[in-house]
Amino acid sequence: MAQKVILDVDTGCDDAVAMLMAGHHPALEFVAVLPVHGNVHLEVTLENTLKLLFAGKLEHVPVYVGANAPLIGPIIAGDGDQIIRLPFPESSIQPQEKHAVNFLIDYYMSGEGADTIYMPIGPLTNLALALRIEPKLAERIPKIVTMGGAYIGGNTTPSAEFNILADPEAAHIVYSSGIPIVMIGLEVTDKAVIRKEDIQPIREIGTPWADAAAEIIDIIVNIHLKYPGRTGGIVYDACAVAAVIDPSIVETIPMHVDIEINGSYTRGRTVADRRTRGNAPMNVDVGISIDREKFLKILYASLR
Ligand code: BDR
Ligand code: CA
Question: In terms of Cα–Cα distance, which of 220, 18, 38 is closest to 119?
């Protein structure tokens, strides 16, 4: 039976690839998508999400619009890694009337979501709000697999990864909720480099969703190749989806992870305790590496 997933997205180029994988890999059932503020402002993450679903032949996936700003901190949309608007035609898809937060509460509290993995690949604002409205939700969400965080160093500040920095208070609520979390952070995603030559097999697949993915990945690779020392592009959020399709491609270590919400230099850091003698419970399976070849195979298989 296909694994059900809900994606909470801030589309974003790499979110778009993640959605195409979730929507087309036979091992997954893409239950719903929840656009939130993040890479760009909510109006644009929504527009990009609708365009992507249309271009990628995923019109059947319901869209529930989420939070337009972090709980407390400032909006930090745009870190230079993303283009603002996806290069696809306007979409005729309409979002649902229900808010993403209400959808999360209704879906999981009804018991329908007992086997559904929740996948935040943007800031964690939607789930944090839902947990504050309905704390019992923490017992109903079986598992979170998220792209976010880093146990060594950040990409948006020396300490913080973008998705966590974009709403550290929300991340604190989610990471301390008791919901089992698999964290696909920068130490994983940075090992899944996609080189220029890796895009050609995607172009050759010939499906509309593979064409869309090739176009987006090409943009990402071109942006990332401008950074010193890069040999290709990082399609962050795609790594989290690949890790749900085949968890064996990612090596994880259980750690205790807290979110730094106060530090003037370290706000947004996922403070991961790698000591075996720490007293705090291990609340997160922290990804430390990924098999790049297997990741590419899963990417290609998703787009066929
Ligand atoms: C994360 O931040 C966003 O820019 C990407 O979409 C990804 O989810 C990487 O730090
Ligand atoms: Ca994202």
Answer: 18
Query: How many domains, the chain?
Result: 1
Q: Which residues of 178-206 are buried (b: 16+ CB within 10 A; e: fewer)?
A: ebebbbbbbbbbbbbbbeeebbeebeebe
**What is the rounded average pLDDT for all residues in the chain?**
96
The CATH number given to whatever domain includes residue 252 is 3.90.245.10
CA of 98 to the centre of ligand 1 (A): 26
- Residue-wise pLDDT tens digits, 136-187: 999 999 999 999 999 999 999 999 999 999 999 999 999 999 999 999 999 9
The candidate with the shortest Cα–Cα distance to 181, out of 127, 261, 109, 108, is 127
Which atom of ligand 1 sits closest to the CA of residue 186?
A: 10
pTM (two decimals): 0.97
From the list 269, 240, 122, 141, the residue with the least C-alpha distance to 182 is: 240
Is 10 annotated in the active site? yes
Best mutation site among 236, 239, 241, 269 for ligand 1 pocket (most ligand atoms within 8 Å of CB): 236
**Local structure of residue 232 (DSSP, 8 states):** S
Ligand 2 centroid – CA 83 distance (Å): 12
pLDDT for position 81: 58
The residue segments making up the domain with residue 234 are 3-302
